Amino acid sequence: MRRVRPEPAASRGGTAPRTGTASRPATASRAAGEERALTSVAAGDTFTEGRPEEIPRLWHVTLSVSGEPTPLPEVRRALEQLAHDHPFLLTSRYADDHAEIRYWEEARDLHDAAAVALRLWGEHRQTAGLPPWEIVGLEVIDRVTYHQRIAAGYGPAPATPVGVHPF
Q: Does residue 68 register a pLDDT over 80?
C-alpha cells in the first residue's frame, strides 16, 4: 500500500487553479507541529509526472559577435575570462573586430537555449570585460543534428582544440 501526502494537488504542481480564492496557502494545510506523511514508491513504479518535452536537452550554440576593432590582447583576455565565468564554453575564435563562441547549453527547448545565448554576451560584458560588440549571428541545434553534421563532414572537426584561439 502506498501512502500519499494529504496536501492539495496545487502544492505539488497539479492542475488546481491558482486564482487566489483559497482560504489559506497550501503550505498551511497542516496544523502547527503536524508532520507531513512520507510518500513511498513501490518497486517497479515509474515516474510519470513531467512530459518528455519538459526534460532538459543539450543544444549546441554558436554565437557570433562583431563591432569596432579592439586590440587583440584585450579580446583574448576577455574571452578567456568569459570561458572561466561560463565553464561550458567549448571554443572561442576571435579577430580584432569579431568573434565566434561555441558551447553546449542545457535547456528544455530551443526557445530557452536561444534566449540564454542571446543574453550571454550582454550579461558578461562588464564582468569579463568583453568589447561592446553586437550579436550578429546565432545558431542553436540539438545534439542529434550536431552529431549528424560532424559525421557528414560539416562543422568544426572534433579535433578542434578547446579554448580561445585566433581565426
A: yes
Measured distance CA(24)–CA(100) in Å, rounded: 52
Question: Dihedral (C-alpha) 18, 22, 28, 29: value to the nearest 10 degrees?
Answer: -100
Taking a C-beta distance cutoff of 8 angstroms, is the pair 88, 103 a contact?
yes
Contacts of 91 (CB under 8 A, 6+ apart): 101, 102, 156, 160, 161, 162, 163, 164, 165
- Rounded to two decimals, the pTM is 0.65
For the ranges 6-20, 28-42, 82-96, the maximum mean pLDDT occurs at 82-96
| Residue 123 φ/ψ, nearest 5 degrees | -70, -25
Residue with cell 494529504: 6
Q: Is 76 exposed, middle or buried (0-12, 13-18, 19+ CB in 10 A)?
A: middle
Mean of pLDDT over the chain: 77
Q: How far, in Å, CA of 112 to CA of 101, rounded? A: 18
The answer for 128, left when phi > 0, alpha when psi is -120 to 50, beta otherwise, is alpha
- Is the pLDDT confidence value at 21 over 50? no
